[in-house]
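#lab-general

N.A. 3:47 PM
ok so I finally got the sequence cleaned up, no stray characters, all 347 residues accounted for. can someone with queue access submit it? mine expired

B.Y. 3:52 PM
send it over

N.A. 3:53 PM
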Amino acid sequence: MKKLTSLLISCSLALAGAALAQQPVEQQSPSKGKRAPEKTRATEAQPRPNAAKPEAPAAKQHGAMKEHGATNQPGAMKEGGATNEPGAGKGRKTPANQESTNAPKTDVSSQREGAPTPHAKHQAEQHAKGMKEPGAESKAAATPAVPAAAAGRAPSVPAAGQQNAQANAGARAKKPDPQQVQQIKSQHANFRAQPKPQQVPPVTYNQNYRVQGSEHWQGPQYEVFRSYHPEWHDQGWYRSHYNRVELIGGGYYFWNNGYWYPAWGYSPSAQYYAYDGPIYVGQHAEPPDKVIADVQAVLQQMGYYKGEVDGLLGPLTREALAGYQADQGLTTTEAIDEPTLESLGMS
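B.Y. 4:20 PM
back already:
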């Protein structure tokens, strides 16, 4: 019995030892189960460097805000792809799993350098229509815009040219009224010009003088102007060469074949001439001051002459003659010549 009892005790002890030997193994498995949450926490904490992922839409929004012109917002994207967000470490390497986050940045820069975004296209279309959008002020300041008033005037340029052409055509077609011409001539039947050296300065004698530009005037009706040059003679010489020598408007003139010429030297005390050259009056030999007054009055009614009807062929009268001759397609002589007097209906 004792042996059997000791054997049972030995077996019990052996079983108890075996149980004790297995007990740490069973306790290790729970410890492993307890450590598993730590790994889980580590894995949960691991995505922490990737916290920029949820901010990727915000980065896109910041990029979009920069497209709208809000360049000073925190976190706005720079051209190099870096951000100004708080906590962005200097020199930190971007993890590989953040490449997807940086991809929109690359797209934004490529859209700036390359093809315009749909929003930019929309802005360009509205800018072409003359519309302004918020955020486009900086672009408008960089590119000078055509004023709307100037754009509105652009279509009127051809119209203005047509109006000028019509006005010139109307002026060329315009002729003085024959009844008014006859009325003016009758009013000036006894007209006599008076010298006005202060208002109309006199010309001086120059034997080398030639009528300016006359060498380019074509036709026999301008021959007297091309060949004219002043001559100085005494009274006897003039009397022996010409039938009519008269004192008109402060100076002596001689008449020859439809023209009056200054008689230089006829009387040194009476040599007031506003114009040194031939004055055409026709074969009726009317006094030159009367014909000049008739021309001045007609040109005054037509709007060419703004001065006084004084019978002196001064600068204002010559300017009015040049304007009328140009509108009528005549040679611009600034003088009373045969074609001009015929055009005025006074020949």
